[in-house]
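Input (structure):
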């Protein structure tokens, strides 16, 4: 019997054709718009050999039990895999594939977009135009100039370094790039970036970009105590995962007048409720987790996820497998 692959959402057209042309697998798809409801996911996963999922699908023991013993590979169409319980996969010797590399440029682009938009108060400006509040005062809508400023990158991985590279021309030769992370990154020297302690980064940066993965060490790394130490006009941008910021603390800090402006592509929960307190601040720009949302990037991500799942069900090594560290 051909191995069965569950696809939890239709892929961009070229990728969809690619997976449908794989003749040695039986494909089942959730073909409705939007994320697959949990109940459907549990039901459709039954007996499958491979799953292509999105970051909206929690892969936990309940799902893996529902899928049953045939499941060999989970392939997420995302670089991040904090929605996947690695321990549960490891226990069952199930492989995990993800999509690093191909979304680096798109996410770095959107990080820069948020930095610029936050620094120059774009949301407030658009709102002023739309509500007839445009005035010509010299000191109205003053934003932050980048020249000579310090950019702090949390997580100088692929996305972090691509972001640093893009921001370098904005700060100029007298600007500084600093970064925080677990290890020294060889790429840092070519970027002119210096590794610093976390405390130094949050105190000295004019612009902070969160580009690290969400894990036990980075969960709520940004909380009230941290916001208190930041420059009063700091620009804080998160394009990684919402859970890295303790969001209640962010709202509290903002309502107490801390922080300059904030740009978020990721938050808790996603989608954010339209009446969330975060949205009442003019100086917070929230966009709907669209870091990788270009046709080119989404197609490359989907193609990589397809390669991962097909390799997994065929018993081959995944082109982009997540290393399953043992505890
Ligand atoms: C997007 O957030 C991803 O992890 O790919
Ligand atoms: C993710 O792709 C990263 O390494 O930043």
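Output (sequence):
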């Amino acid at each position: 019997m051909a191995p069965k692959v569950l696809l939890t959402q239709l892929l961009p057209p070229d990728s969809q054709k690619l997976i449908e042309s794989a003749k040695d697998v039986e494909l089942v798809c959730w073909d409705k718009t939007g994320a697959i409801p949990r109940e459907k996911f549990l039901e459709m996963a039954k007996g499958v050999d491979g799953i292509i999922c999105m970051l909206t699908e929690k892969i936990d023991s309940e799902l893996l039990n529902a899928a049953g013993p045939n499941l060999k590979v989970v392939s997420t169409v995302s670089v991040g895999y904090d929605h996947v319980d690695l321990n549960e996969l490891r226990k069952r010797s199930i492989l995990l594939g993800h999509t690093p590399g191909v979304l680096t440029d798109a996410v770095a682009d959107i990080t820069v977009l948020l930095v610029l938009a936050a620094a120059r108060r774009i949301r407030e400006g658009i709102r002023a135009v739309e509500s007839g509040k445009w005035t010509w005062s010299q000191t109205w809508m003053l934003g932050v100039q980048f020249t000579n400023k310090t950019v702090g990158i949390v997580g100088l991985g692929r996305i972090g370094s691509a972001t640093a590279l893009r921001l370098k021309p904005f700060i100029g030769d007298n600007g500084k790039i600093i970064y925080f992370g677990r290890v020294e990154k060889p790429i840092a020297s070519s970027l002119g970036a210096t590794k610093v302690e976390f405390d130094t980064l949050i105190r000295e940066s004019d612009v902070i970009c969160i580009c690290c993965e969400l894990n036990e060490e980075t969960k709520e790394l940004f909380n009230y105590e941290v916001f208190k130490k930041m420059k009063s006009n700091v620009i804080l941008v998160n394009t990684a995962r919402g859970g890295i910021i303790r969001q209640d603390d962010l709202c509290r800090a903002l309502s107490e007048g801390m922080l300059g402006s904030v740009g978020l592509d990721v938050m808790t929960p996603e989608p954010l409720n339209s009446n969330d307190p975060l949205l009442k601040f003019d100086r917070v720009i929230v966009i709907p987790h669209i870091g990788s949302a270009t046709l080119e990037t989404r197609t490359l991500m989907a193609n990589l996820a397809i390669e991962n799942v097909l390799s997994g069900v065929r018993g081959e090594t995944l082109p982009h497998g997540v290393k399953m560290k043992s505890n």
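Notes: The chain is about 35% helix and 15% strand. The chain has two domains: 4-101+295-313, 104-286.
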